[in-house]
Amino acid sequence: MKKAYVKSYGCQMNAYDAGRMADVLAAEGYSATDTVEEADVVVLNTCHIREKAAEKVYSELGRLRVLKGERAESGHDTRIVVAGCVAQAEGREILSRAPAVDVVVGPQSYHRLPDLLRQSRETRVVDTEFPAEDKFDHLPARRNRGVTGFLTVQEGCDKFCAFCVVPYTRGAEVSRSVAAVVDEARRLVEGGVREITLIGQNVNAYHGDGPDGALATLGHLMDALSAVPGLLRLRYTTSHPNDFADDLIAAHATNPLVMPYLHLPVQSGSDRILHAMNRRHTGDAYRRLIERIRNARPDIALSSDFIVGFPGETDADFAETMRLVSDIGFSAAFSFKYSPRAGTPAAEREDAVPEAVKTERLAALQDLLDRQRHAYNAASVGTLTEILVEKTGRHPGQVAGKTPHLQAVQFDAPASTIGTVVPVRITRAGSNSLFGEALEGAAAAA
Ligand code: SAM
Ligand code: SF4
Asked: Is the CB of 9 within 6 Å of ligand 1?
């Protein structure tokens, strides 16, 4: 049987796309492999958000060229595919710089992969179109492999934050219909999935065709999904503060499947920097929004993205970011040093913050965020919570899963609990994971 190796970098959207590419290849008779040396097709699903993204892809392609040569010597053909956002951004340039590459395919065209692979026997091919047909209508049924799954409901971004390449690589905001999403969710649940994370670059800008012909919001979509039998939990990511409609806030109070966790990037606490970033919201607007969300769901766990050292950021601006973090209190977060991305407005600026200053600010911010994360986890010790069990744990007899607030927990229970929700008392907080005990009889009954 032919084998395919698919490697994905970056965000959840890419992880989802990589899974769908594996599905496309499986329908063509390729089984998945984790060993690149035995792969007949190698797909690199690239991310443009990474620093020096294109350069890293070219050096990986250099290594793959050697591998392709070695396999050819033993009579094996290897097709090399570059997909994802670097493929979209670099296009044909990849063919000139990386002679081993056979196919370059953008995030909107990967349903054409079988055709592109066939064409590549004649000539090397590039497909970075935003095709008129909807790729989701042309993908084979999903094969799922776990208790939790991602489901793309929205793609693209119209926001044009000054630092970000996504609107250029992923195109304008488009949403799938409620019917298409519900249909995919049903199949996932039939395949054993119990928790679905709805994903999109701006997932809360979702506006898909609803069953009554009107446009549905993300809140409506989650209401429709809560009727899928067997589905236990819903999450969504990534949201933008400016698209947070009242009905989405209400969903956190009224829809029991919507988990009390929210990743809501703010990027900075300084209004001057937020303006320069073209975020179109202030620090106080973010605080007010969080207050409204907490009024609806007081126990909601909050996470965010931060960028330090955006061009022109002063000590006073950075102090505003630290103040916002202290005011809100996050259970988790991602923080990055600003780095310029070619083609974005911020990359043109000449008032870069020195590297040493960025390093210092990032360390201070991460220290504060880490202390908040530890305090949040420590406060869970002694509480009774519900764990959706995802897999076996690190030690024999242990299983691992997540709280509604997205904390990882390990506890003793049989593997038969995988896919079920078990009541667990948290007994200890480790540095990356919590530990607990299943309520007596609860795990055995599963
Ligand atoms: N749509 C999402 C949003 O609005 O946050 C995700 C965008 S991006 C995939 C994830 C994060 O990468 C951003 O929230 C931002 O913090 C970070 N990021 C994007 N471009 C960056 C850059 N040029 N330098 C540093 N961090 C960046
Ligand atoms: Fe990038 Fe901003 Fe769009 Fe998020 S909202 S994808 S950070 S442009």
From this structure: no
Give residue 239 CA to ligand 1 midpoint distance, Å: 12
DSSP string, 148-203: EEEEE-EE------TT--HHHHH-S-EE--HHHHHHHHHHHHHTT--EEEEE-TTG
Helices then strands (H, E): number in the chain? 14, 21
- Per-10-residue mean pLDDT, the chain, length 446: 94 92 95 96 92 88 96 96 94 94 95 95 92 80 85 95 93 94 95 96 96 94 97 97 96 97 98 98 98 98 98 98 98 96 94 97 98 97 98 94 98 97 97 92 62
CA of 26 to the centre of ligand 1 (A): 32
- From residue 239, alpha-carbon distances to 32, 250, 407, 433 in Å are 32, 15, 20, 25
> Phi/psi at 187 (nearest 5 deg)?
-65, -40
Distance of CA 247 to the CA centre of its chain: 23
Give 303's strand partners. 263, 332
**Whether residue 136 has its Cβ less than 6 Å from ligand 1:** no
The reply to whether ligand 1 has any atom less than 6 angstroms from the CB of 168 is: no
Rounded CA gap, 71 and 80, in Å?
A: 12
pLDDT of 47 reads: 93
Cis peptide before 238 (omega within 30 of 0): yes
Residue 31 C-alpha to ligand 2 middle, in angstroms? 35
Residues pairing with 148 in the sheet? 195
The residue length of the chain stands at 446
Determine the pLDDT at residue 443: 64
73 by Cβ neighbours in 10 Å (0-12 / 13-18 / 19+) ranks as exposed
